[in-house]
Amino acid sequence: MVHGPARRALKQSDIVAREITRRIVAENLPEGTRLPHEKEMVEEYQVGRSTLREALRLLETRGVVSIRSGRDGGPVVRRPRPTDLGEALTLLLQFEGVNFSEVFAARRILVPRLARRAAERITPPTLAALRECLDRMDAYLDEPAVFRAERQRFDKLISNASESPVLELLNSAVGSVAEDADRGADPDRFTRTQRAAMAREDQAVYDALAEHDPDATQTAMAVRLASDEKRANAARRDIAGRSVQWALVEPTGS
């Protein structure tokens, strides 16, 4: 079980950071928007420079702003990404001593569930886009980079079709944690025959989606995940048994 300290009282810098975040969201400021100069923000929030700078550093660690250096530098709006949550989750799991097998287990729950929801909601345009991905995978079996990109697009389309933003975000974060392990299942590590098998697994998922069959879709996706994990374990010497690490270092001789 994950343990943590009792909630502490908010510092002034925390309050300012939250106010800045509210403003960014309320005004729908696009990524790359430059925030006001330090002097203006100090006056607006009625705090000292050190408090403002601490607030901005906090927002930078949360992925809400990026701090540019130089004469024209300063805080710039940045949209938080699923990988930001993935990094935080990776650190938490590392301190808890969690193995990649547990990450894979969570993904075996999340991904088929997303696919199941997608089967209930998928639209003809999305099916057409998935069909295009499959066709390109078949056409580029000899070009691993293209094959990989199309497979990633295939997964993203299904995830989006689920219309479940929270599950999508959780799945992306868990996928980010598993990124190092997944490199063992990258299509460019395998033969043309093995990539063809991957494409057939994706075809089975597509067929179930096209029939709007939630049960069949969930099963097909579960089968595909099991195959991907088996390939990853074979390629990376049972990565599932290793502990999650923020920066996974390839063992000597791998």
UniProtKB/TrEMBL annotation:
Keywords: DNA-binding, Transcription, Transcription regulation. Signal peptide: none annotated. Residues 10-80 form the HTH gntR-type domain. InterPro entries: GntR_C (IPR011711), TF_FadR/GntR_C (IPR008920), Tscrpt_reg_HTH_GntR (IPR000524), WH-like_DNA-bd_sf (IPR036388), WH_DNA-bd_sf (IPR036390). It comes from the Bacteria. Pfam families: FCD, GntR. Transmembrane segments: none annotated. SMART domains: FCD (SM00895), HTH_GNTR (SM00345). Gene3D superfamilies: GntR ligand-binding domain-like, Winged helix-like DNA-binding domain superfamily/Winged helix DNA-binding domain. CDD domains: WHTH_GntR. This is FadR/GntR family transcriptional regulator. It comes from Nocardia jiangxiensis.
